[in-house]
Amino acid sequence: MAILAPSILSADFADLGNDIRKTIKGGADYIHVDVMDGIFVPSISFGMPVMKSIRKVTDMYFDVHLMIDDPARYINEFKEAGADGLTIHAEACDDVAGTLKKIKDAGMDPSLSIKPGTPVSDITEYLDMVKMILIMSVEPGFGGQKLIPETIDKVRELRKIIDTGYPDVLIEIDGGINLENVRDIVDAGVDVVVAGSAVFKNDVEANTAAFKKIMQD
Ligand code: DX5
Ligand code: ZN
Fold first, then answer.
1. What is the pLDDT of residues 78-114, one digit of tens each?
2. Can you tell me the distance from the alpha carbon of 67 to that of 88, in angstroms, rounded to the nearest whole number?
């Protein structure tokens, strides 16, 4: 079954620990942690102190999505804050291979993301270095946007490449995923689904469980 990674960007920050517990009760697999620096993307979200606090709430896998410029600067700090995996943006660093290697050497899973306008061909040379490729299905920076349909073609393209030579690499998608479109997304070949605003509204536990039910094989 595909993996569900609720994005806490849309959680209630005044009650973050409880919101995370609700997703765990509902069957979440990872916690998706969006870090934004106000430079690579227009918004600023949160950083290491918040991660350290939520690390005390759960030993769940922290899938940390770094929307920050030159992420190599902070790799050890994110490890100390409790990250299990770090996803960097191909557009945000000059030395992608070197940064992925640093993440691995620090004891975390390295993953690589591309924005909607960046072609899959830009990242295929790194497939033997990553746990996941994160296909952004919206422009990174904000929760609650509408999925850009053309990005699903990139999922299909990447699925074919992965199936021919990189069976361990997972495809993750992030942005605009909801209960109405998630089945099609999984059928297109996605392994890891990130969902923010569709999880953290009304009954968080029930929303999480509803996603998992639809995502069943
Ligand atoms: C956007 C973030 C996403 C965001 C997804 O830049 O990377 O993880 O929280 O939110 P929704 O699911 O609301 O599009
Ligand atoms: Zn994200």
1. 999 999 999 999 999 999 999 999 999 999 999 999 9
2. 7
Measured by CA distance, the residue closest to atom 9 of ligand 1 is 143
- Tokens at residue 12, please? 């209630």
DSSP 38: S
Amino acid identity, position 92: A
Q: How far is CA 129 from CA 5, 15, 100, 111, 156, in A?
A: 22, 36, 7, 8, 20
**pLDDT tens for each residue of 155-209:** 999 999 999 999 999 999 999 999 999 999 999 999 999 999 999 999 999 999 9
**Measured from the CB, is residue 175 less than 6 Å from ligand 1?**
yes
Strand, helix or coil for residue 95 = coil
Which of 34, 37, 63, 109 is an active site residue?
34
Residue 208 Cβ inside 6 Å of ligand 1? The answer reads no
**CA of 181 relative to ligand 2 center, distance in Å:** 17
Place of tokens 């904000």: 142
